[in-house]
Amino acid sequence: MLETFKSFELMQQAYWALAVIASVIFVIQGIMTFSGMDADTDTVDGDADFDADGFHLVSFKTIVCFALGFGWTGALLWDDFESRIALAIIAMIVGFAFMSLIAYLLYLVLKLDRDNTFKVEKVIGLNADVYLAIPAQKAETGKIMVSYEGSMHELEAVTADEERIPTGAKVKIVGIEAGEVVIVSKI
Predict the structure, then answer these.
(1) End-to-end alpha carbon distance in the chain
(2) Sequence ranges of the domains in the chain
(3) Residue 109 has pLDDT above 90, yes or no
(4) CA separation for the pair 70, 79 (Å, rounded)
(5) Helix, strand and coil in the chain, % to nearest 5
(6) Which CATH class name applies to 120-186?
(7) Which end of the chain is more exposed for a tag (fewer CB within 10 A), N or C?
(8) CB 150: neighbour CB atoms within 10 A?
């Protein structure tokens, strides 16, 4: 097998070496990822540099995937292309495709890691529908339904208005009182 490798041209040897090395690193990364020992982040003062908001195309994983696509394309298509420049261009295109695909997949995975906990402060200024009538002058609470980021939330509500707000009325959320009780006014 070593004799076969030595018989290859220098560039063909480079493709094969890159493909094999990248494959070994890729397998190690996969094992580390599934065993929980993996972190593809660069930290500076404890802050992750690679997250879904600060998305980066170039990371160690994406570079390994580029090398994987580039190396295997060059090694396997060596005999099919007379032009070594055309082969290198195609290998680069495949490498960039691998790199982009893994970067996109990492982006999707990191989006899952976001804290999507509903915070009542985020609905201030939104319009809502009264679900249970709201007594006037903050006498008691009623309930409203508000849509936020594609989901409906039922919240307790009070109003400082002089009149009771009936079920089905449209209201605007103007503030928060006592934790998660919202203050509304009729529109």
Answers:
(1) 80
(2) 2-112, 120-186
(3) no
(4) 15
(5) 45, 20, 30
(6) mainly beta
(7) N
(8) 5
